[in-house]
Amino acid sequence: MTQSLTIAYISLTGNTYSFVTKLVEYFKFQQSSLQIQLINVKDIIRDHTEFFELEQPTIAFLPTYLEGGNGVDTGYTEILTNPLGDFLAYNNNYKKCFGIVGSGNRNFNKQFCLTARQYSERFHFPVLDEFELRGTQRDIERIGQMILEKLNTI
Predict the structure, then answer these.
(1) Domains of the chain, with CATH numbers?
(2) Of the chain's two ends, which shows fewer C-beta atoms within 10 Å, N or C?
């Protein structure tokens, strides 16, 4: 049976793009029947394309870019990645999203993956996992396996 998955993400420095493309390769190796649609929301904005309604199970990947501070008392305002939130809000696309995976730099302490937690709260879906920068092979395998297991329950 062929399953479908949309991976909606935004990549500004290439780290998230690197991770999701490695994840797609992992899926090809693990389960060749999985049909994956990658959506970099930054491309939609750059190309002045209209947002569209998601039609299949979706997972979101989001790096953290916050405005200064420590992420708790100050500096918890999302910057640069807002288009992903706009895309998920469009026609209730977030209802097709079964969760989000956050990324960031652990050097930023409490801000690490804070944006993913903010999206989780805003859209009422879980933060499924997190990874640092471009992630490791172990991150790819762990997150890939978790996504495959989630898809089997949808």
Answers:
(1) 4-107+123-152 (3.40.50.360)
(2) N
Single pTM value for the model = 0.89
Which two structure tokens, joined as six digits, stand for 152?
């089997």
- Give the burial string for 2-29 (b: 16+ CB within 10 Å, else e): ebebbbbbbbeeebbbebbebbbebbee
Distance from C-alpha of 109 to C-alpha of 104, rounded to nearest angstrom = 10
pLDDT digits (tens, 9 = 90+) for 3-22: 899 999 999 889 999 999 99
Are the C-beta atoms of residues 9 and 44 closer than 8 Å to each other?
A: no
Query: In whole angstroms, how large is the CA radius of gyration of the chain?
Result: 15
Task: Report helix angle 82-89 to 114-123, nearest 10.
Answer: 20
Indicate the pLDDT class of residue 38, thresholds 50, 70 and 90.
very high
